[in-house]
């Protein structure tokens, strides 16, 4: 690595170190010099490499799809078939390059469940969303013991709650080894929150509970019949009533 960095300014080294650290944290890989540039071998076929000069920061990758996606996100960038060059003094551009790296990493890396769960808390919402989708896929074939459903369902952030609802619904569908019955009370607690979208999501997920836990049908129906929705707008109340009626008809 020294052969590449020895002629760089302090500022250039700081930017490069930031990008290398970002990818290393995501992948647990160490950068190497490839094609005379600091690079990460994401898979046998996919590489992420960086170049930095006095005027630009360059990202090079064999993943052409990410290059195409970036064209709508980066202004004043120079695009090649396998490269993007941006103003190295632009913080916005540097963060965009990180996001592009995240897209490549999430698309091609094989993650263990623990890494994906940690990624749910990532500051890049697109990265956390991709981690969530990969967890949803994994749950179709495996129980993921590391998922802390209580943490997700009790979280103050609504996107965490949504992750918890959907992941638990997936587990109800595909995991016959665990009962999950105790989590129903957590669902009922969510119905007390003043969040319209959360209420709709919880009620909708009750269909999954009833389908895979039919002995809980009457408990769910009884609770929904007594649900207080008076603090919502009239139009929201109407929508909630429609969703509740769907459950009561099951």
Walk me through this protein's architecture:
The chain has helices spanning 2-5, 10-27, 64-70, 91-108, 113-119, 125-139, 149-153, 158-174, 184-190, 196-212, 217-225, 234-248, and strands at residues 32-34, 37-41, 47-52, 56-61, 78-79, 83-87. The protein has 250 residues and is α+β, with helices and mostly antiparallel strands. A 6-stranded antiparallel sheet has the order 1-2-3-4-6-5, covered by helices on one side. The radius of gyration is 23 Å and the shape is elongated. The termini are far apart. The mean pLDDT is 91.
Key terms for this structure?
11% strand, six-stranded antiparallel β-sheet, 6 strands, 12 helices, alpha+beta, single chain, 250 residues
Which strand order does the major sheet show? 1-2-3-4-6-5
- Tally of DSSP helical segments: 12
Radius of gyration: 23 Å
Category by helix and strand content: alpha+beta
